[in-house]
Amino acid sequence: MPNGSSADSILTVSPEQLTDLLWRRLEPERWPLKPSQLPEGAVLVGGAVRDGLLNRLPPCPDLDLVVPGAVLGTVQRLAREHGGACVVLDEQRQMARLVLKGWTIDFARLEGEDLTEDLFRRDFRLNAIALSLSHPQQLIDPTGGLQDLQDGLICAIRESNLRDDPLRLLRALRLMAELEMRIDTDTLAMVKANGALLTRSAPERIQAELLRLVAAPAADAAITLLQSLDLLKPWSAPGWQHSHVNASQPLRAASSMTLEEQSLALPLARLTALLSDSGLRSLRFSRRQIQRCAKLRQWQERCAHGDSSSLDEMERLRLHQDLEADLPALVLCWPEQHRDRWMQQWRNPEDPLFHPRSPLDGDTLQSELSLNPGPILGALILHLTTARAYGRVSSREQALDEARRWLHRPPSTSELSRRCD
């Protein structure tokens, strides 16, 4: 059974009670469309059914519907009639999304001769449970997904289904991390045998799975398995096996952090250890995400095991400028004494070094000192930021005096050289 789930209290009841309890958990009266307004013969499948049975539904669960016949025209009509938006996901396979009142409802055309054949084409048995929407509701479970939920197992329906969509190989690990379940032995062998096929999947889809995996409650166990399978080898950070921050390393320090700090630190640290900078780019991560990982990697190497004693003033300031928001990810694996001291200072938003700011902004400096925008103004702001970070100025008057002193100092050799150029 998945940890922290109350699934045993629902999965062991009679089939009639099970369907009734699931229907109540799904709260169809809150859906943006009444079940009677949905296409005739529509059935609910996939994650919402699974998560309802496991009692882990979010406030607005994504609803996946299988519909007999054409889909696109139906979804476009529903969008017009109810003020929503229709997004075509796959025109050839008749898949479309209705976005309405903050909810997402995905519609897919029934594949095969009947619902049973459709369900047997899916990835894992626990995702192949369907719920009819017409009264009386009925659970349809031809592959044995309900038993897998009881046993806490992730079992592929068929190996060919994994090969048809290789992203499902990675999804097995993501489900393991999110649901805190085990992958059964046969399915694990299928993943290992077909791992090389993952490169055929769209980079954006791989990225989406990884972002969910690294933030999941059982991420460390899933990542240990993921790395042993070499599933991400084409995008892996070189030498992760010998890194002082291993993506699968149990990060005990997180227990001394708040939940908010953990949600900030753990996913970023795991992602940085899992993927190289080129791997992040290949998988189409955002520029911001790539920069965050690159800066974290740089300072992990520079301050391995918490040794920051070799940093001079400017390097230390640069560290806190680069990682002001992401410092918890840097100190996760540091010795306790260093880690706790840095975290205590980081938690204070007024700490001038851990949250470096110039005591005077650019507009004030231009107005008070008759400066123009340019390199000199930028250098002055950096100088004042450094002075404030190390306690050499604190008040506005002190900052203005220091700025005047800095502007009237003799130019340095490098400045003279630039002027000559």
Task: Tell me which oligomeric state these chains represent.
Answer: single chain
- State the total count of DSSP E strands: 9
Number of helical elements: 21
Helix amount, in percent? 40-55%
Estimate nothing, just give the exact number of structural domains. Answer: 4
CATH architecture of the largest domain: 2-Layer Sandwich
What would CATH call the class of the largest domain? Answer: Alpha Beta
Report the uncertain regions: 1-6
Which value, in Å, is the CA radius of gyration?
28 Å
Question: What distance lies between the first and last C-alpha atoms, to the nearest angstrom?
Answer: 71 Å
* Biggest sheet layout: 7 strands, mixed
What does this molecule look like?
This protein is of the alpha+beta class and 421 residues long. It folds into 4 domains: 1-151, Beta Polymerase, domain 2, CATH 3.30.460; 156-224, Hydrophobic Seed Protein, CATH 1.10.110.30; 236-346; 362-420, no CATH class. It has 21 helices and 9 strands. The strands form 2 sheets. Strands 3-4-5-2-1-6-7 form a 7-stranded mixed beta sheet. It has a two-stranded parallel sheet with strand order 8-9. A hairpin with a 4-residue loop joins strand 3 (85-90) and strand 4. The longest helix has 16 residues, at 259-274.
Characteristics:
seven-stranded mixed sheet, single chain, disordered N terminus, Beta Polymerase, domain 2, alpha+beta, Hydrophobic Seed Protein, two-stranded parallel sheet, 4 domains, 421 residues, 21 helices
